[in-house]
C-alpha cells in the first residue's frame, strides 16, 4: 500500500479562561506524527479526554492547528492557524463522518439537497450531473435512488447514518475520518454499517481513520491501531500485535477492560 497521508509535528494548545478560585486548564495535543496508507483502516483508541476527537478534527481541517504540516496526495498543507498558500480545510481528499448523523441533517431539507450542497460549492458539475452522481452514491451506500427526496424524519437511524456516509463520499475523497460512527446505533444496524464500510473500502480503495471505544469492532476492521493518552500517541502498531502484546500501560488497561467484557470462549476463538 502506498503512503497517502503524512502528518508531521501537528500540535494544538488550548487554555480555558481562569475562573474564580480555579486554575486555568491547559490541554496540549501533540506533536503528532502519523502516516496513512492507501486502502488502510486505522483505529484511534484511548480514554475520554485523550485527544482522539480533537485529532480527528485537526486531520480534516475542521480546527486549525498551532503548528504542523500535513502531506496529502503528495501536496503539502500548512495545518497551522497562520495563512498559507494552500488552504488545507479546502481539500476534498479527506472528509469526516460525524457520530450523531441525525444532528448533522437539517430536518427541513431533503437528502438530495443535503448531498448537493458540497457538490455545488466544490465542483462545476451541472444540476443533472450532480443529481446523477448523488443517486449513484445513495445506491453505493445501500439506499435507493428515491431516497433523494426523503426528509430526515422519514429515515431510520441506520439510513441516516448511510446518508452521513454518502455526504462524506460525494466529493470522492481518498480518506474518510469517522468519530464514533457506530456508538449511536443498535447492534444489528451497527453490524450492517461495519459491513458497508468494509465493502466500500474494497470497492473504492478508501482509507479510513476511525475513533471507537468498541474494541471488538476495532479488532475486526482495523489494520493498525493508534493509542492516545493525554494528547499524545503512546503506542501504535498492527492490530493483532497491539491486542496480543500491548506495551504501554494505557494500552494494557484498555485491552484488559475489553477482555473482561468478552466471553473467554470468544477470545480463545479469536486467538
TrEMBL record:
One Pfam family this sequence matches: ABC_tran
Alphabetical keyword list: ATP-binding, Nucleotide-binding, Transport
A single GO BP: transmembrane transport
MF annotations from Gene Ontology: ATP binding; ATP hydrolysis activity
Domain ABC transporter: 5-255
Protein name (database record): Peptide ABC transporter ATP-binding protein
Amino acid at each position: 500500500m502506498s503512503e497517502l497521508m503524512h502528518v508531521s509535528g501537528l500540535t494544538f494548545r488550548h487554555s480555558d479562561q481562569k475562573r474564580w478560585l480555579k486554575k486555568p486548564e491547559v490541554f496540549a495535543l501533540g506533536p503528532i506524527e502519523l502516516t496513512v496508507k492507501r486502502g488502510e483502516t486505522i483505529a484511534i483508541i484511548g480514554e475520554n479526554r485523550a485527544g482522539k476527537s480533537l485529532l480527528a478534527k485537526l486531520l480534516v481541517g475542521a480546527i486549525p492547528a498551532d503548528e504542523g504540516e500535513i502531506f496529502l496526495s503528495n501536496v503539502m498543507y500548512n495545518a497551522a492557524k497562520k495563512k498559507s498558500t494552500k488552504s488545507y480545510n479546502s481539500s476534498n481528499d479527506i472528509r469526516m463522518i460525524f457520530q450523531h448523523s441525525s444532528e448533522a441533517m437539517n430536518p427541513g431539507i431533503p437528502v438530495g439537497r443535503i448531498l448537493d450542497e458540497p457538490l455545488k460549492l466544490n465542483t462545476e458539475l451541472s444540476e443533472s450531473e450532480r443529481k446523477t452522481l448523488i443517486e449513484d452514491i445513495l445506491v453505493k451506500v445501500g439506499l435507493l435512488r428515491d431516497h433523494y427526496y426523503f426528509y430526515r424524519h422519514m429515515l431510520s437511524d441506520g439510513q441516516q447514518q448511510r446518508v452521513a456516509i454518502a455526504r462524506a463520499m460525494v466529493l470522492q475523497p481518498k480518506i474518510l475520518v469517522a468519530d464514533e460512527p457506530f456508538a449511536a446505533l443498535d447492534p444489528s444496524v451497527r453490524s450492517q454499517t461495519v459491513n458497508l464500510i468494509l465493502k466500500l473500502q474494497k470497492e473504492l480503495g478508501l482509507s479510513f481513520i476511525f475513533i471507537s471505544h468498541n474494541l471488538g469492532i476495532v479488532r475486526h476492521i482495523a489494520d493498525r491501531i493508534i493509542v492516545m493518552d493525554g494528547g499524545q500517541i503512546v503506542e501504535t502498531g498492527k492490530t493483532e500485535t497491539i491486542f496480543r502484546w500491548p506495551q504501554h500501560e494505557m494500552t494494557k488497561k484498555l485491552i484488559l477492560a475489553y477482555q473482561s467484557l468478552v466471553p473467554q470462549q470468544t477470545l480463545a476463538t479469536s486467538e
